[in-house]
Design brief:
Order of helices and strands of chain A: EEEHEEHEHHHHEHEHEEHH
Strand content of chain A: 25-35%
Number of strands of chain B: 4
CATH class of the largest domain in chain B: Mainly Alpha
Shape of chain A: globular
Oligomer: heterodimer
Number of strands of chain A: 10
Strand order of the largest sheet of chain A: 6-7-8-3-9-10
Shape of chain B: globular
């Protein structure tokens, strides 16, 4: 365990009811880097990423054992408050999920639930976050219109702005581009590279090119197990495991 | 590992956790309220039944109900009456409703659908006392004239009215079941070159069968529990028709017995206990019916949720097919027999010949023409529903328009309603409804928030939900008797506004609970996750993200509840109302109410003036209730169009 690992998991197992979805995951996420989780559908990559901000709490019959250390504290402990974790570990979902509110209120939401209601402060937060998400120029004249009127790519960047607004340390992205067209995807990818200067990014993706393009580290998962984890270049050019190689070369999956 | 931080920053303040817990327990309390009501209803009804003036066996099987003269308390003729009226109603309602449901969900264009669906909802919204009034002045006269019988107040009249009243229930639930058939099934069949009608026959109906069955059972439950309309058109003689198929015999049901006799019974006497026995019997019958329906609907959800396990058939498939054939032919024979007994030889013969011809020609007719015939039949079912609605509405309007005037609305009734107006019943109804909704809304909404937002599916939520479903299927007259036993007598409220308000509130809680739950569920899970992901607590998420988009749905539910409460007679008949010309000055005084006023002047007050006033009252009541329903439908349709995720 090195000190620049912001998250480490230890013997992480997860069950949905009777079915085990994750088996003994041990891995470390490096700070200020982009880590990509890849693997065929149903391999558990989305399940794993949802463990990092305790989003699986919402799901029926989900049971977890093992530990996830975030800055040295185990976030799976029962006295840990999921709400506090989520303030530090933001998440962007597969499908853009803006609230049916104005663009402004969407970004301000996280601050408002933390009790910040000062208009000036909020204005500041909204502008800063939208700028960081590279959306400001497109929406600055219609901040008080409904977010539902934005395009899919804009909505997704709005969701990124929304999670940046509470100044997390880590941003989890669960297939953030799977519902977007190539142009919108390119914008989000550029954004990710920009974001890693300030944040740690973990991304789940189906798209291997995307993983190769943007990530620094890549984890390959298969049937709920972490098969290989390493430098992205190494994983794609010189995989150690046969399973990884088969997947990367397109022999299955 | 980073060990600089000594205090774990991820453990939150105790205060917020405590708040969240407190909020959750409040919602939990509202959620278990429904179950508490169900059990207290059971408890108080059974308590008041004891001591039954006769042994249970003769209570159930005795055919003579003579509670005041010979003191005989046999309920068998009442049970038979209930079953016969329901049977007749189902023969009328089932084909029309299922045809209608198929037409709406599979054939109608969206424009046609947008007309038909509100029409069916209006049919559901007409108060039962208005149905009774229509039956009393129109239907019974028609039956008397057409069939040349001495009185039109018969089993037939009851079945027709009940059949019409059951149509909306069966149609709506059946339509939901048909809509729930996955589109892939349908497309798979169409892609193989089957016609639309073949697809409906071979794929859609079989897949929706258990839902359709549940719809029918719920319709039966509704028919068994109906009081006011039946009481007004059936003649109410506690006899078993002779011969059994004599549809022109007067008949008396369990519910009408309660409706007629409870108000005048001496409290604590044998008759009183016997009446509560009748209520328990009625409740048991409806509970069994509703539990069956809930169970059936539950199996559908399960089947859609997971891939079904292979069922082991008790018999071989061929034997099953044979059994099915035998049952079908027996059923056909039974229907023929009924047809013959009711309509006579000639009509039966003609129908048999037509049916036979169709049967033999079924292979000669091209699939295209077969589809045309089938679709026209389904269309006819829908047309019939619209025509029935049109007839009822136009008669009520024509009959009542003459009596309407400003004075009619603002003056208190005089000379038993023959003169003056309806100001006191109108205001009384508004008081009752306002109180009922004020009580029911927080409980219903709270319970549904608990069910959708705070719990994962478990045994407790299943029990709560079943409790709400059973409460929903409980006959309104049973609520009336419960209110009488609990609020009026046990809590010594007497006949009072407050007793009526609470009784009505209990009755509409399930309506509000269910519509709110639907509204909350229609808010996508992804929005909740989006909110949690930025560190919102559960209550913050509910308040800021879930409730705002669900609000129109909740308001719709509340208005539907108001409409239902405004039209009900049975629950307030023994708890709140008095045929008075005064306004109540406190919650502990009785009030008059529109449905009750209509009931009394149309059944108990003779003369043309009373008939005229009854027409006016029926129209005002109808407009009031339909007004509420229309507002609810408009709100819902408006937001259905604008809501997009």
């Amino acid at each position: 365990m090195t000190s620049n690992q912001i998250i480490t998991t230890k013997n992480l197992n997860l069950w949905y009811g009777e079915k085990q979805a994750l088996f003994d995951i041990n891995m470390g996420i490096y700070a200020n880097k982009i880590t990509a989780l890849i693997g065929p559908s149903g391999c558990g990559k989305s399940t794993l990423i949802r463990c990092f901000n305790r989003m699986n709490d919402v799901i029926d019959k989900c049971r977890i054992t093992g530990s996830i250390y975030f800055n040295g504290n185990d976030i799976l402990q029962t006295n840990t408050d999921a709400v506090e974790i989520r303030k530090k570990i933001g998440m962007v979902f597969q499908k853009p999920n803006p609230f049916p509110k104005t663009i402004y209120e969407n970004v301000a939401y996280g601050s408002r639930v933390q009790g910040i209601n000062d208009k000036k402060k909020l204005d500041d937060i909204v502008e800063k976050s939208l700028k960081k998400a590279a959306l400001w120029d497109e929406v600055k004249d219609r901040l008080y219109e409904s977010a539902m009127g934005l395009s899919g790519g804009q909505q997704q960047r709005l969701c990124i702005a929304r999670s940046l607004a509470i100044e997390p340390e880590i941003i989890l992205m669960d297939e953030p581009c799977s519902a977007l067209d190539p142009i919108a995807t390119a914008k989000i990818e550029d954004l990710m590279t920009e974001l890693k200067k300030t944040y740690t990014v973990i991304i789940v993706t189906h798209n291997m090119q995307q993983a190769a393009r943007v990530s620094d580290y890549t984890a390959y998962m298969y049937l709920g197990k972490l098969i290989e984890f390493g430098d992205t270049e190494q994983i794609f050019e010189n995989p150690k495991q046969e399973l990884t190689e088969n997947y990367i070369t397109g022999r299955f999956g | 590992m980073n060990t600089k931080k000594i205090i774990n920053p991820l453990i939150s303040g105790k205060k917020r956790k405590r708040n969240e817990k407190a909020i959750k327990s409040v919602f939990f309390l509202t959620a278990i309220f429904g179950i508490i009501i169900i059990f207290s209803i059971l408890f108080f009804l059974i308590r008041e039944t004891y001591p039954l003036p006769t042994d249970i066996w003769s209570f159930l099987s005795g055919t003579i109900w003579s509670p005041t003269e010979s003191l005989q308390f046999g309920t068998f003729s009442l049970t038979v009456g209930t079953l016969l009226v329901t049977l007749g109603a189902m023969i009328i309602a089932i084909p029309i409703s299922i045809g209608g449901a198929l037409f709406i969900s599979e054939i109608a264009s969206s424009r046609v659908r947008s007309i038909i669906k509100p029409a069916i909802e209006l049919l559901a919204g007409i108060p039962s006392v208005v149905y009774g009034f229509f039956g009393l002045i129109i239907l019974t006269t028609w039956i008397k004239d057409i069939f040349g019988v001495p009185t039109g107040e018969t089993w037939l009249a009851g079945s027709i009215i009940l059949g019409i009243m059951a149509i909306p229930t069966i149609t709506t639930v059946a339509e939901d079941a048909i809509k729930a058939v996955p589109r892939e099934f349908k497309e798979g069949s169409l892609a193989m070159g089957a016609t639309k009608w073949q697809t409906i026959q071979k794929v859609i109906i079989p897949s929706a069968l258990s839902g359709i069955t549940a719809a029918i059972i719920l319709g039966i439950g509704r028919a068994v529990g109906e009081t006011m309309a039946i009481l007004m058109v059936c003649g109410n003689a506690a006899i078993i028709p002779t011969p059994l198929w004599n549809i022109f015999s007067p008949i008396r049901t369990l519910t009408s017995t309660l409706g007629i006799e409870t108000a005048e019974v001496p409290v604590g006497g044998p008759h009183y206990h016997a009446l509560f026995g009748v209520a328990v019997l009625l409740l048991m019958i409806t509970l069994i019916i509703n539990i069956t329906a809930v169970y059936l609907l539950g199996t559908i959800q399960k089947r859609q949720g997971a891939t079904s396990k292979k069922k082991k058939h008790l018999f071989s498939i061929t034997l099953l097919i044979k059994i099915k054939k035998i049952f079908t032919s027996l059923g056909l024979l039974f229907i023929l027999l009924l047809l013959y007994l009711i309509t006579g030889l000639l009509i039966t013969a003609i129908l048999v010949i037509i049916g036979g011809l169709l049967w033999f020609m079924r292979n000669k007719i091209s699939q295209k023409n077969l589809q045309k015939i089938a679709f026209s039949t389904l269309g006819a079912a829908i047309l019939l529903i619209i025509v029935i609605l049109g007839i009822i509405l136009s008669y009520i309007i024509i009959n009542g328009a003459g009596a309407l005037s400003w004075e009619f609305l603002t003056e208190a009734p005089k000379r038993l309603g023959r003169e003056g107006g309806i100001s006191t019943p109108l205001i009384g109804t508004l008081y009752l409804v306002a109180g009922a909704i004020a009580i029911a809304l927080p409980i219903g909404v709270g319970a549904s928030i608990y069910l959708t937002e705070y719990t994962k599916e478990n045994t407790l939520t299943k029990i709560i939900r079943t409790g709400a479903d059973l409460l929903n299927g409980t006959p309104s007259i049973v609520f009336g008797l419960f209110g009488f036993a609990f609020f009026v007598l046990y809590l010594k409220f007497g006949f009072s506004l407050i007793a009526g308000q609470i009784t009505l509130a209990f009755m509409i809680i399930p309506t509000i609970l269910r519509t709110t739950e639907e509204a909350l569920r229609s808010v996508p899970q992804s929005l909740r996750e989006g909110s949690y992901a930025v560190g919102a607590t559960r209550w913050q998420t509910i308040r800021r993200v879930v409730l705002p988009p669900a609000a129109p749905g909740i308001i719709t539910g509340a208005i539907l509840g108001i409409g239902r409460a405004a039209g009900e007679t049975a629950p307030i008949m023994f708890t709140a109302v008095a045929f008075s010309s005064f306004f109540p000055t406190s919650l502990l005084e009785p009030v008059n109410a529109l449905p009750y006023h209509l009931f009394i002047i149309s059944t108990n007050v003779p003369g043309a003036a009373a008939k005229n006033a009854a027409g006016g009252t029926a129209l005002v009541l109808l407009l009031l209730v339909i007004g509420f329903y229309s507002i609810a439908i408009l709100i819902r349709n408006h937001y259905q169009k604008t809501m997009k995720w």
